[in-house]
Amino acid sequence: MRLTCPLAALALLAALTGCERASAFKPGTQVVLAKVNGVEISARDSSAAQALEKIIDRELLVQKALAAGLDRDSQVAQQIDHARRSVLAQAYLDRAAAAVARSTTEEVRAFYAENPALFGERRIYRLRELAVSVPAELVEVLRAEAARATDLDEVAAWLQARNARFTIVTLTQPAEQVPLARLPELARMKEGDIAVFPAPPGVSVVQLVQVQEAPLSEQQAAPLIEQFLVARKRMELAAAEVRRLRDGARIEYVGDVKR
């Protein structure tokens, strides 16, 4: 199975322990860090001073909104209900996927072997990139022009002569930050090579300036792979649960709802 998202997604983002209203916790379980017009605010991480200040700002705004009766506004009430339903739906999926088994050594080893460009043959790329807005009929013409060019500035001049809109940037990206659709071709490129990649609504013209070998051993990559595989299993389990619920539900589309 091939990798379906960048390596950056392998490392699960650490959830920020945000401050919450004290009423959301049992009395005595949280340290009160501040009071805003008498409303207590607590935090699981008492060192998160910046987060606390943001929560204080939010509490002040909430109090003003409530005083103005915005919670009774039909549009606001609809948004609150939508947020509540989203939280409940996600909570159900999280609980349903909580029992996902840890990845085995064999699974990690296989995943490592199947994605050499991200691990054993990982590289860091220094690139110049033209993000171009062109109509579909000019893409092949641009591709041919890029194939003849020896420098990205030549392509930029060609575009400028045709009043095409584009931006040019220089960036350094490790393999895990490169869009996966580009990675196989980029891994084959040599310094100085130019390639054109789809980037709706236009294209991206990329010149490889410099490349640095930066492989990760299986041991180095294992923790990230394990986290990614668990996350993927949770997503697959959640998707399967949604399908199961849909199969057992009576769903009626009313009117001209497009599906």
Structure write-up:
There is one protein chain. This protein has 259 residues and is an alpha+beta fold. 42% of the residues lie in helices and 20% in strands. The protein contains seven helices and seven strands. The strands form two sheets. The chain has a four-stranded antiparallel β-sheet. It has a three-stranded antiparallel β-sheet with strand order 1-3-2, covered by helices on one side. Helix 3 packs across helix 7. The longest helix is centred in the last third of the chain and has 30 residues, at 218-247. The chain is extended. The protein starts with 19 loop residues before the first strand and ends in a 12-residue tail after the last helix.
Summarize the topology.
Layout: E1 20-21, E2 31-36, E3 39-43, H1 49-67, H2 74-96, H3 105-114, E4 123-133, H4 139-148, H5 152-161, E5 165-174, H6 183-188, E6 194-199, E7 202-213, H7 218-247
Antiparallel strand pairs: 1-3, 2-3, 4-5, 4-7, 6-7
Helix pairs in contact: 3-7
In brief:
The chain is an alpha+beta fold and 259 residues long.
